[in-house]
Structures are given as C-alpha cells and as structure tokens.
Amino acid sequence: MVFIRTTEACKDLVKKTICENIRLKDRLTYGQIGRVVVMILGTAGLLNELYVEIMTRFKHNIPWKKFIQQWSSAQEISQRNDSSAELNRVLSLYEALEYTYNVNWMKETDYLSPSCFVYLVERLLLLASCQKGLMFSTKSSFIEWLNYQDENSLANLSLTPVMDMTNVHKFIGRIIQELINNQNGIINWMRKSNLDVKSCLPLFVLRLVVSLCLLHLSTGKYLDSLSTLLGKSHITSQLPLEFCNVLTRRRKVTYLKVLAEALKVIDNPLVIVKLGNISSKIVCPDAVFVDLMVCRQKELILQMLFPDKVDSVDGESATVIVESSDPSRATVFLWICWTGT
C-alpha cells in the first residue's frame, strides 16, 4: 500500500476524490474539510489549480482557507530553500487545528473523525519536532510525511526552525492529555463518527500516548505527564502490555532508547531523521536512521524503510505492499481516514 500510493494512477484517484468532496453545493462540513486536508498531506504533486479550487470552497472556514493558501505555494517553495515559508505552513496547520478543536463537535452534523484528527495532530507534531538538525517520528508518521514530498521539495528541504515552537508544543501536549483523560468523550465522538469503539479506542489511545512520548523526546517537558497517565488503569488497559512495561520499567538508560524499544514492540519503530549538520553522534540500536544530508531520493528512502518488501520502486512498476489485514497498521491508515472509518 505504501508503494502503490507513489504511482500516478493513485494520485489521479486522490485528485478525483478531493474534487468529489469539494464540488458539493452545500457548505463544506468539518468532516469534508478534514478528509480533503488528510489527502493533501499524504499526496505529492497536486496542481496549483486544484489548490485554488479547494481554497474557493474553504472560503467559509477562514483558518482552513489560510492553511490551503500557505500549502498551495508548495510547488513554488520546493524550488528554493525557504525555511520561513515552511514554518508559516506549520503555523497555519496549528492555527486551523486549534480552531477546529475548540468547535462544539456535538452540534456538528459531520465533524472530523478521531482518526482524521489524530492524523493531523501527528503531522503537526512531526513538523514541530525539527530541532537542532534532527526530526523524531514514528515510522508510520514519517512515511506519511515522505509521501507528501516530491523530487523538488526533498532536494530543497529546509526544516531548520527559526522561530519558537513553544505554543505549538503546549497545544499538542494539552489536547493529548485532555483527550486521553476524557474517554467517555472519545467514545461518544467515535460513535458519532460511526466507528467501532471496541476496535478503534485502543488504537486511538495508543497513538495519543505515542505522540506524547515523542513530544517529550523533542521538548524534555512531559515525563511527569506521561508517568501520571501510565499510572491510570483505565488508560493502560487500552495499551499493549509490553509497550507499557517498557515505558514504565526503571532503567539507567536514556529516554531515547526507552522510547525506541517501546515503539519497536508495537512494530512502529522510532525514526530519527538527520536534517542538518550535527556534531553529536546518536547511538540507538532500536531506531531507524534516515540521513537526508546524504540521500534525498524518495524511492531509495522507501527501500531502506522496507528492505525486505520491495524489489524495485520505479514509477508505475512499484510493488504493491499490504503489510497486514489489521487496519491499525500505518500503511493502510490513510485510506481509513479517507473513508471515515
């Protein structure tokens, strides 16, 4: 599934689906906006003409219209190294998510689904985690980010922060903790989104906890919050047992190694991405290292991430990978978001 999404046939299908969502006559719902945004963030090479059409249909929702305005310049930005423009796009996603989070979703006929919302939070976290030439992510989130990149954007990538991301980090930390501590609210949200609570709730809680772990890795400020959450049985009962054991086991090792081991247990390893020149050497056997200073070819990076599952990645000849029938696996998650399940 990862590799088929790089083909032109799949991109054409995405464009068609986006058009079907935005060409409805009625005012777009938050659910429709969210599904369109998820498809944008998971697809490379969308034409500016499509962005203009999307922007026109988003006119009644100013924060998301601003988001489209910032991201519609992707092709132009990808031709040059423009870190300020990249950061403006990060902030536009933050502002749109903050606005959407504060909406009374109970009164909306079609709000963002929990899976769609957490996908956007994960992307915001990834973009806001670029610190001192490094980016920390799970493998699934990194692949989604990579799928958005085209040849030009990777070649001219500039994610070295030039402004303070404290407010973004605080927002992510606050909403993660509020959501995890309000399981009744999550259950009602899932039911309103027509999701199966029994199968979706554990995955949703796991992804929120993982996001908080990554946030602590980037900021060093959320260890106490994590300890508090992992001390509550109604939360840990939703998480894989070995994952919890690794995180709560007291050992004299760095948090980086603890998190890498925990993510390896759930088969979604920690990815450490080198974005710039750094002097310190990181040793973490359970993490996957991607050096974008050495290689910025999308196909080669995918081959490195899936060494045993692809023979060649060459345009339309890409091998189709289906890792698991379990819909919780990262490689099929984007399709789940698009269908709202």
TrEMBL record:
Keyword set, alphabetical order: Membrane, Transmembrane, Transmembrane helix
InterPro entries hit by this protein: TRANK1
Transmembrane segments: 33-52
Protein name as it appears in the record: Uncharacterized protein
Organism: Trifolium pratense (Red clover)
